[in-house]
Specification:
- It is a single chain.
- By secondary structure, this protein is mostly helical.
- It contains 4 helices and 2 strands.
- It has one domain.
- A two-stranded parallel sheet has the order 1-2.
- The longest helix has 14 residues.
- The two termini are 22 Å apart.
């Protein structure tokens, strides 16, 4: 695993295509991805704002929880 760390902002975590690409690169070991609880909350809020048909309960939190445990950090 690389010693290089990349801090993802909310604009990287949402929209999904960019997030998927960058998460793939992080999971391949190119770098270590990190984000804060505040950044996580910001991208979820952006998603819910653009998708009024969704609620927090509608989101699949299984993958999000896995990513959060693996990548998120608190500053």
């Amino acid at each position: 695993m690389s010693g290089f760390v990349a801090v993802y902002d909310a604009c990287v975590l949402y929209p999904a295509p960019l997030r998927d690409l960058l998460m793939h690169l992080a999971l391949s070991g190119l770098y270590r991805a990190r984000w804060t609880t505040r950044i996580h909350d910001e991208w979820v809020a952006a998603l819910l704002k653009r998708r009024p048909d969704l609620s927090i309960a509608d989101l699949d939190w299984g993958l999000a929880r896995k990513w959060t445990r693996q990548f998120r950090t608190v500053w």
